[in-house]
Structure to design on (57 residues):
């Protein structure tokens, strides 16, 4: 199915480069967000699965 689609479409490289750009852009954005986060927020979020709501009060 994909071979037929790619054979019929001209300028296949545009689709490949666009998908690679979206992929890289997403992971670069996630990396930047993780680097900018405060340490307290990361610690709080890492403890969420281990603590109950009652423990915070």
């Amino acid at each position: 199915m994909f071979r037929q689609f790619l054979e019929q479409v001209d300028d296949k490289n545009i689709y490949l480069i666009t998908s690679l750009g979206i992929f890289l852009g997403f992971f670069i954005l996630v990396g930047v967000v993780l680097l900018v986060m405060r340490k307290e927020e990361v610690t709080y979020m890492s403890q969420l699965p281990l603590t109950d709501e009652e423990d915070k009060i």
Remarks:
- The helical segments are 2-8, 12-36, 39-47, 53-56.
- The mean pLDDT is 82.
